[in-house]
Design a protein that fits this description.
This protein is α/β, with parallel strands linked by helices. The protein has one domain: Alkaline Phosphatase, subunit A, CATH 3.40.720. 33% of the residues lie in helices and 13% in strands. The chain has 20 helices and 17 strands. The strands form four sheets. Strands 5-4-7-1-9-11-2-12 form an eight-stranded mixed beta sheet. A hairpin with a 3-residue loop joins strand 15 and strand 16. Helix 13 crosses helix 20. It is globular. The termini are far apart. The N terminus is likely disordered.
Length: 522
């Protein structure tokens, strides 16, 4: 099927190629691979928050197809991005956690298989990257960076004075922090150092290195590349950092919202009553009193303030993405460039009394995913089929007519892009660390934790996932249908030969030992 499809597709793209400004345009389409960090469904097009102002992302979604039920493979930066770029699921690779472990096991896990940009580079594309594409920037594997990219953009240089505001938070790309540092540490003291990033603040230009945030530099670099002549088809990865914590952005983006009018998520007091112990341990977070407890007890308004900061960051990164999209529209490459928009995972802002990604619920796993493919995708179309970020790799290979990469765990979205009324049977498999899984189908979310406990939600009537249906009558068949997608044998973390438990297990053991589950999680 694929051998027939690729030439047909390239013929479909041919009129766009001939209409390009430059007579010597490469015949294969270019790719603008546009990612945003920690962006959940809080965009106008996705509808996750009615107050979100994202005109540029919404415009792109109207120009192509939006997948409204797309999900990551694991809701944390390192694992998600390496699964997207390798095309392999964490349950295949064992890449659940640290980048250092991924480096040590790269040869063992990848073998002859290639990361997405290397596959394009080795098949005639010029590959360019800027910002946060992998977890640590344009590459998580320093010695392999040249294998992935022909050209890379600048890093972000932050002064010691500005770094001091971050209270030791790693990665200068996430800076600057608020003028007075983290509100969590200011309120609770150094023993709450893990809360250094759970903060927000509007910034003046003199709060930023040379008056600019990193995402602004990323946009400028990408715009410059689009104004240059490229003699080969290009694959350009532009990885924006916001709305990742800290929730800081230039003041004008905070001015777009009225703090007093900000709506916080509706979270019932008994939200966690039907959640198993492993789910409660995940929701607890990292702060010594629990993340949600720290937020709601800092002040009567801090929850609203964090939502305010997140929305400002969403609008800020929307503006930066808009600069790149406008530059593409004004360039010689406008009619021959595929645009794909994606986020590595979602973000909780108090739902399920949780304040990070790093979970198996909807807010953590659901992401924006949109394609604009000249002469292929139809403007203003949507698909509600459950799809995975793992599908990015095979889709782009398919659309660009590259040789297949047979090790991939996803499947091409091209049939759905060409005809959004089509359906697919396979749901999305999602991990959270070792042995914890969610299965997201079109209408259901099933969760099975490594201790055997479960959750089930019917998204037709319970989009907020408030009622766990496990143990209720009438759902045995639905549960069995979803259980069959769980791997029969859990893949040990790469580089390990046994599982010895982790912080989630130890917390549960303590709670059970001294009957100390916090009241706010009961």
């Amino acid at each position: 099927m694929r051998k027939i499809l690729i030439p047909v597709l390239l013929l479909v793209l041919a009129p766009a190629v001939r209409s390009a400004t430059a007579a010597d345009q490469p015949s294969q389409p270019n790719v603008l691979f546009l990612s945003l960090d920690d962006l959940n469904d809080w965009t106008g097009a996705m509808g996750g928050n009615v107050q979100a102002k994202t005109p540029n992302l919404d415009k792109l979604c109207r120009q192509g197809i939006l997948f409204t039920n797309a999900h990551c493979s694991q809701a944390v930066c390192t694992a998600s991005r390496n699964s997207v770029l390798s095309g392999l699921h964490p349950s295949t690779t064992g890449w659940y956690t640290s980048t250092a472990m991924m480096r040590r096991t790269y040869d063992q896990v990848m073998g002859e298989h290639k990361m997405l940009p290397q596959h394009f580079k080795d098949n005639g594309y010029e590959t360019l990257a800027v910002g946060k594409v992998f977890h640590q920037g344009v590459s998580d594997y320093r010695e392999r960076t040249d294998d992935f990219w022909n050209v890379t953009g600048p890093n972000y240089k932050v002064s010691k004075k500005l770094r001091a505001r971050g209270e030791g938070y790693g990665g200068t790309k996430f800076y600057p922090f608020p003028k007075t540092g983290s509100q969590i540490i200011d309120r609770y003291g150094k023993k709450y150092a893990d809360g250094n990033s759970l903060c927000y603040g509007a910034l003046d230009r003199d709060d930023m290195p040379d008056g600019k945030m990193y995402d602004e530099l990323i946009a400028e670099w990408a715009v410059e590349q689009l104004q240059q002549q490229h003699d080969k088809p290009f694959f350009m990865a532009v990885g924006f950092v916001r709305p990742h914590v800290p929730y800081t952005a230039p003041k004008e983006f905070f001015d777009m919202y009225d703090l007093d009018e900000i709506i916080v998520p509706d979270v019932p007091d008994d939200e966690m009553a039907d959640i198993p112990m492993m789910g409660k341990s995940i929701a607890y977070g990292t702060l010594r009193s629990g993340d949600h407890h720290a937020v709601v007890n800092l002040s009567d308004t801090y929850w609203r303030e964090l939502v305010y900061g997140y929305l400002a960051c969403v609008s800020f990164v929307d503006a930066q993405a808009g600069k790149v999209l406008d530059a593409l529209a004004d360039s010689r490459y406008a009619d021959n460039t595929i645009v794909v928009l994606w986020s590595d995972h979602g973000q909780h802002l108090g739902e399920k009394k949780h304040w990070r990604k790093q979970a198996l619920w909807e807010e953590a796993t659901r992401v924006p995913l949109a394609f604009k493919i000249p002469s292929v995708s139809k403007p203003g179309t949507q698909s509600a089929e459950a799809v995975s970020l793992l599908d990015l790799y095979p889709t782009l290979v398919d659309v660009c007519g590259l040789p297949a990469a047979p090790a991939l765990d996803g499947e091409s979205l091209l049939p759905l892009i060409r005809d959004p009324s089509q359906t697919r049977e396979q749901p999305v498999l999602i991990n959270w660390y070792y042995g914890n899984y969610a299965v997201r189908s079109d209408d259901w979310r099933y969760i099975r934790y490594r201790d055997g406990s479960e959750e089930l939600y019917d998204h037709r009537s319970d989009a907020a996932e408030r009622t766990n249906l496990i143990g209720k009558e009438g759902f045995t068949e639905i549960i069995d249908q979803h259980r069959r997608w769980i791997p029969k044998k859990d893949k040990l973390p790469a580089g390990s030969d046994s599982w010895k438990g982790d912080a989630l297990d130890r917390r549960i053991e303590k709670w059970r030992g001294d009957d100390s589950v916090p009241d706010w999680l009961k």
